[in-house]
Structure formats: C-alpha cells, structure tokens
Amino acid sequence: MSNLGKMMQQAQKMQKDVEKAQNDLGNMEVTYSKDGVSIVARCDNTIKSISLDDELVKSRDKEMLEYLILVSVNGALNNVRDKTESELSGIAGGLDLSGLL
Questions:
Q1: Domain 3-100: which CATH class?
Q2: Phi, psi of 20 (to 5 degrees)
Q3: If DSSP codes are grouped into helix, strand and coil, which group holds residue 100?
Q4: What number is the average pLDDT over the span 10-36?
C-alpha cells in the first residue's frame, strides 16, 4: 500500500476517534464553585445546573449575584474547554483541533 493510502487510513481512523471522543465528552460534566455559586456544565458546552448558597441569596444584592453567576458560568465553560482539549489531545497527536469543536 502506498504512503498516501496509509495516510488516508490514518486520517479516517483519527476522524472516527475524534467523533467518538466528542460523543463521550457530551456525557462528561465539570463543576465550578466560587463564592456561593456552583455550576455544573456538560462538556458539550451546555449548563446542567446552577446552585446558589442560601446566604448569598439572602444578601439580596442583585448586581453582585448577577456578577458571581456570570463569573461562575465562564469558569465552568473554561473548565469544559480544558477538559475537551485534554481529552482530544491524545487522539490528534498534538494537532490543533480547536477549529473542529
């Protein structure tokens, strides 16, 4: 078999591996907690849940609460990105797949 044929087979295998990893990532979750806000995010870039500490809710500082939720959601999504990159890096052998996600 020619080198081109081998490369095509490797590319097809890598594509299947990436698709499987992306499906697996859709079932994985990460949690981010800070200052009374806890976010559970799925590795398909969706938020599963948001929990607020009772004391935080009692403070009734709407602007602070909105800010803490925003920071926590962004933190959770950063954790998702890190987990996704970590899971896919082994498949790609160091190739940059960020444009595929």
A1: alpha beta
A2: -65, -45
A3: helix
A4: 84
